[in-house]
Amino acid sequence: MQKQSAETLAQGLGWFSIALGAAELAAPRAMSRALGMEDRAGLIQAYGLREIATGIGILASDQPKPWVWGRVAGDALDMATLATGLADGKRGAVGAAMGGVAAMAALDWYCANQLGEAREARPMRDYSNRTGFPDTPEHMRGQAARDATILSPLL
User: Fold this and answer.
1) Mind listing the pLDDT tens digit for each residue in 44-101?
2) Which one of 6, 45, 55, 123 is least enclosed by Cβ atoms within 10 Å?
3) Taking the domains of the chain in order of start, what are their residue ranges?
4) pLDDT of the residue at 78
5) pLDDT band at residue 23, thresholds of 50, 70 and 90?
6) Residue 43 carries which DSSP code?
7) What angle do CA 92, 94, 96 make, to 5 degrees?
8) In terms of Cα–Cα distance, which of 24, 21, 13 is closest to 61?
9) Nearest CA to 44 among 62, 26, 56?
10) In Å, how far are 3, 7, 144 from 22, measured between CA atoms?
11) From the centroid of its chain, how far is CA 60?
């Protein structure tokens, strides 16, 4: 995958994160009821905030890779939360949600890896010939230094 297509995919994931997060914030009770996990509405809202923050990070950053890896970590957290629903015997909707999260996790992981390869392909800049000083040391020690006016903070 080329750098541009990896970044385009990351942009799409960013918008998806914002949309999913907004839905989780707007209707946490409906989502938790659909999953059979009625007591998790507050947690779903918190996950919605996480999704929105990650989406904004992806869209606003020059380097979206860490934010996409944040999505991967969020997917793992979502899977762990959904697994508690399986333990409660609610397999239908929770299993379907886990399948959807697993598919998104695979896409997120693929995108993060592709962004990594795209970034590594860029040549590193060479700053070895820079000193950080505005002029040569010889010039700064010469007449320019003798002519400098030093202002006293007490004046």
Assistant:
1) 999 999 999 999 999 999 899 999 999 999 999 999 998 888 776 667 888 888 999 9
2) 123
3) 3-120
4) 93
5) very high
6) H
7) 70
8) 13
9) 26
10) 29, 23, 60
11) 9
- For the chain, how long is the longest CA-to-CA vector? 84
CA atoms within 13 A on the CB side of 46: 8
**Model pTM score:** 0.71
Question: What is the rounded CA–CA span in Å between residue 83 and residue 65?
Answer: 27
Tell me how far apart the alpha carbons of residues 100 and 108 are, in angstroms, rounded to a whole number.
12
Residue 82: both structure tokens together: 């959904």
The total number of residues shown for the chain amounts to 155
Compute the distance between CA of residue 5 and CA of residue 142 in angstroms, rounded to an integer: 54
Cα separation, 29 vs 121, in Å, equals 46
Q: Which phi and psi (to 5°) does residue 63 adopt?
A: -125, 90
